[in-house]
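Sequence design from tokenized structure. All designs in this work follow the same two-part layout: the structure record, then the generated sequence. An example of the structure record is given first.
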């Protein structure tokens, strides 16, 4: 998806233990609010918003899986507080 083009602006472009949630500008909490707003627009925008929100969900699940196997790997992640709270809720 085009939303992952923001990964090309990161330095380094690829890092194995990096959580993209709230790190790349199209994966920030502010961008996600915009994706939710797209749900209230007519058809093509609504579908795009749904797709972007599912993309954010899959990226978050990826971060959560990384965090559950290596908590020290994501200590400097911008989404660390959210990861801690969700992992406590689900007992990961």
């Amino acid at each position: 998806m085009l939303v992952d083009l923001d990964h090309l602006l990161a330095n380094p472009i690829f890092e194995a233990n990096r959580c993209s949630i709230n790190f790349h500008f199209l994966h920030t909490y502010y961008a996600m609010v915009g994706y939710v707003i797209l749900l209230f627009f007519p058809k093509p925008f609504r579908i795009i918003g749904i797709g972007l929100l599912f993309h954010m969900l899959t990226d978050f699940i990826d971060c959560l899986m990384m965090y559950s196997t290596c908590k020290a790997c994501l200590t400097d992640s911008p989404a660390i507080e959210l990861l801690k709270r969700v992992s406590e809720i689900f007992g990961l």
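The mean pLDDT is 91. We note this feature because it recurs in several other targets discussed in the main text.
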